Every structure is written in structure tokens, then in C-alpha cells.
Known about the structure:
The structure holds 2 protein chains of 2 kinds.
Chain A: H1 2-17, H2 32-93, H3 98-109, H4 136-144, H5 147-179, H6 183-197, H7 200-214, H8 221-228, H9 231-241, H10 246-254, H11 259-270, H12 272-287, H13 291-296, H14 305-310, H15 317-344
Helix pairs in contact in A: 2-15, 4-15, 5-8, 5-9, 5-12, 6-9, 9-12, 10-11, 12-15
Chain B: H1 2-26, H2 29-66, H3 80-87, H4 89-121, H5 127-135, H6 142-153, H7 158-166, H8 179-204, H9 208-216, H10 221-232, H11 234-259, H12 270-279, H13 283-316
Amino acid sequence: MGIFKKKKNEISAEQTNTEIEPKKTEPPKADPKETEVRGKKEKKEKESREKYREYDAISDRRKAEGRQAFRRTLVAVFFAFLFLMPTVLTFTNSFMTASEINANYGAIFAQNTSGGKVFVSEVVNLKFIPDMVTFSQYATVLFKSPEYLMKFWNSVIFVVPIVIFQLLVASLASFGFARYRGKVKQLIFFLYIVLMLMPYQVTLVPNFMVSSELGIIGTRWAIWLPGIFSPFAVYMLTKYMRRIPYSLYEAAAIDGAGEWQIFTQICMPICRGGLASIAILIFIDYWNMVEQPLILLDNEEMYPLSVFLSRINAGEISLAFAVAVIYMVLPMLFFLYGEEYLVEGILYQGGIKE
Amino acid sequence: MSSDAGKKLDRYLKENAAQARKEKKYGSARFRRWRGRAVSWVYLLPSLIGVGLFFVLPFGVVIYYSVVNNPVQHEFVGLRNFINTWGNNAFSLAARNTLLFSVVAVPLAVILSLWLAVIMESRIPLKSLFRTFFLSPMMVPIASVILVWQVLFDYNGLVNVILGRIGIDRIDWLKSDYAPIVIVLLFLWKNLGYNMILFMSGLSSVPKDQIEVARLESASETQIFWMIKLRYLSSTIMFVLIMSLINSFKVFREVYLLTGDYPYNSLYMMQHFMNNTFQSMDYQKLSSAAIIMALFMMVVIGILLIAEDRFGRDLEQ
């Protein structure tokens, strides 16, 4: 605070230096009555001057703020362009013909495509607007080769149960963590944090071993079960629930509500925003999974779309964009529906421990 | 007067009776608390079983595998596996690269996203639209990300085309010592948006009156930022740090897909080491590497926890 005061003094000193001397229009008179009147007048003038100076300062600040806002808008536009570019590119390029896509990106994937007679530009050609808008890619993906739709369906089958049941398990567990606390629970919660932070590279091996012990390798359960019991949602939701004032639970308990009633009728409705935002995060995480299916499943027919999309560079580049757009549809719907939750729902202040 | 007192007594008796009835029905307050505590463990149970089965128990198996000589003989060999792994060239290369990446990328992600959040916090038009744009990398499929990054950084890619116009020689970005920069950019691009959202919600919870007071005392915006906002953001910074750390391990998926099994040396990450070891079914090397990594992570988490404790106390004072 001291620094602020010092700064204030400096500013006021500057202002007094540059102060314009008031013009003395009236010649001085000896009349005491007159002097009194003049004194009042001067006081009034001084007051109004000060007021105006204040207004000036405010308007200066406004102007500076305006300039700053303009600069910041430019920065935001620049970043928005960078961030949005791949999405836009994917979308517009999905309307290109196969030959156009091959011509544009052939320089990169030349080694992968068979040596047929296609025109390939020497360097890559990043184009946002297609020469000719065509839906042929979509037609191929949707009608001619149903395996893409099957893979899309695979993704849905993997992700939806994981989101629903992880949230279910996590909301029960977080209620257990947040409602009553204790030394043992604190320790367990710390363990959850450690497990959550473990990179997938570390959990991969244990995961594989236990799945093979349980005999679920190669079945969907090998993906579902570790996903459902992942500690991530427990951590996030517990942080969220701990912000609910304890007195709220107590009040409900005094009114005779049982634990289950407190959970379903007080805790869950308050956590709706948090649940939505965590659901989006889980959804995106598992929608994009690549390693788990590759390691835990051996039947390629079960692979989700993300695995296929991650390998698309090997060929089929012309279809990649259309498939990618179809792939983005669900996350995009989730975002449009839940973005407010994602933005407002994460209003808890999260440290890592409590 | 007497009727008033009578009413009071009446009410008192009624309340007492209600309390007694309630206690008869639900048990005393103490009993209720005790039962609540017990019930809260029941709520925890499904998660505890699942986590125990799929995360804790497997880890025990990994520890076991890391101290035996091979999966068939099960002969105890002490720390030999760890020493072998530690001395392994591929492991040390992967560890060094991964560490370097995390040390550079994670703080950068925190600082840049905070900067973006401050920018977004000021009065700029179409704020919510910009916010959506910044979040859009979260939903772009990996394939598109990889494609765009290849379009940009391939030997025949866009960046080289632009560099060529200025007269700089082409660089094969992904097969040079500059490759980590490309990956850091990819990581930042993917994660800045979400981090920024976290920071924006953090900034919005800084008490307004303190900022107002500081403004009245002619504090500059920079001073307000460093001395007020940043102090209130310390727990958010912690959280963003954690999320970035988690996500920094996820970006290796993109690296892996971008470069294949054996990339340029500067890009050989833990992910490559683990995958290659997994494919050769060398459980000893794999589990000892996993444990070394886990121990390292525990140290990092411990440091973060201590740091958070410090920051938290700092704010309370």
C-alpha cells in the first residue's frame, strides 16, 4: 500500500506544478465586504476547477483504457485466428474434391500415396477455400464405406458409459469425501491426487496386467472399467463440493433429511454446473483416446474413430477431413450446449489439497 | 401478561416434544453424526474398490515385477532392474527430453494463459465469441492437429515456404534440434484455451473493492496486477499448473503419432521408450521405468503441495 501512496503524492505534485494560474479579472478592492464575496467566489472557482481536473483525469483514463482495449482486441483477434485455424481448415477442406486435397498436401504425404499419376505441387499448399464445393467426401464416408460410421458408433459406445458412470461413481465418492472429513480420508484423497497425476505411460503397464488377470483384455470392459473408476472426476468434484457451506448440510440434517436425501436434493442440484463441466472434460479425454484401444483391444473392428483418425496419415488423406468433421460433431454439440457450464462451472478455486 | 408467559411455555413444550419425536425417529444428533460418518464410507466404497482394483493393486504388481529377474522364475534381484534401467541410454535420453519439455512447456503455458486471461478480462467486444474460439482446440481431433502441424512444419511445409521467401534455408523441423519447439507450440496451442478459462474465473473472484481502493490510491494497473490479483490467483495458478502437468503428458500422444516409433533424438520421449519396451515385452525394464517415473512424480507433487501450503498461508496473513 505504501507504494500506492507514494505514487499518489508524486502525481499530485505534478498536477500542482502544471496548474494554470487563475486569471484575476477584477482589480483588488479594499472593501472588506467585497473581499469576503471574492473569497467565496474564489473558493467556488477552485472547487469547480478541481472537479474538472478530476473529470479530465477520468476521461484520460477512459481514453487510455480505450486504446488499451483496442490493442488487446487486436491481440485477441490474432490468437483467435491461430487457435481457430485448424478447425476452419478441417471444415472447409472437407468440401474439396479428392484430387484437390491430394494436390495440396501431396508434398507431405507423397511417400505414402501410391505412385499413381496425380498432380502434386512441390510444396504444400494451404488452402482454406475449395476450388469446387463438393459433398463427395461426405457421401463416401457416410454411404459408400459404412466402416466409418461403425467406428463412430464404437467411439460412442466407449465414451458415453464412461462419462455417465464415472460421474456417478465420482459424485458418490466426492460426497463421501466432502461431507465428513477425517485423517484417513485426507490420506486417501492425497492418494487419489497422486494416482490422477500419474502419466498414462506409468499406469499403462499396471492396467494391462490387471486386465489380463481379469480376463477382460480384448473386450470393451478393458476400456470401460478403468475409465469409470478414474480418480480424475473424484478429485474435480470433491474440490467443487467442498465449496458448499457445511451449514447447509447441517440445516438439512436438523430438518430430518437423511444422508441420501442430502446427497440427491441438496448436493447434486448445487453441483450441476460442476458436473456438466467435468462431463465435458471426461468426454473430450476419452473421445480422443488412442493408446488404450491400441494396447487393450486386439480386434480392430472395435477400434474407435479416434484410433482410425490418428492413423489416417498413412493414406486416405482425401477422406480425413470429412471424417474429422463428423468426428467433431459430438464434441461441438457438447461445447455449444455446455460451454457456459465449462466457463461458469469451474468457478471453484482449486488448489490441489484441502 | 400471564397469558403471554403461558404461550411461551406452550411453545417451548411443543418444540421440546417435536425434538423428542424427531430424535425418536432419526436418533439423537450425536448418533446421527456417527451414522453419517459411517454412511459416508459407503458412498466412497464403489470408487475405493474400483481405484483399488484398477490403479492401486496393479501398482503392487508392477513393484513386484520390478524386483524379480523375470516373469517366469520370479527370483528376487533387489534393485538390479532399476540400476539397469537407470543406466539404459534410451531411458536416460527419454527422461532428459521429457523433463526438458515439461520444465519449459508447463511454466510457459501458465504464464501465457494468464496473460491471455488478463487481456480477455478487459473490455473487448464479442468476449464470449473469443472465449469459444480459444477453447476450440480442445475438440479438434488429433488427426487434424497432426495434419495441420505437418502442413506447417514439414520439410515442404508452410513455415519453410515463408522462410524461403525471406531467404532463409529450409529446415526439416521435426528432424532437427528445433523439433522440441514445434512440440511446445503444439502443447501451448492445445492447452492455453482451457487454462485461460480457469484464470478468467480466478480473476473474476478477486475482490472488487480491493481493486477499487487501489485505483483510488492511484495504483497503476501493473501494480494492481502484481500486488493484488496475483496474490488471489495463487491457488488458481496451482491448479492450472497441475492441469498443465497432466496435459503435458498427454501431448506425447501427438508427438508419437507425428513422429513414429523412432523419432529424431531430441524428440525421443518417455512415451516412445514405454511403447517400445512394451512391444518387446520387457516387463522388468518397463516396470522399473514406471516406478522411477512414479517416484519422480511423487516428488514433484510433494513440492507442489508444499508450495501451495506456503502460498495459501501467505494469503491468509
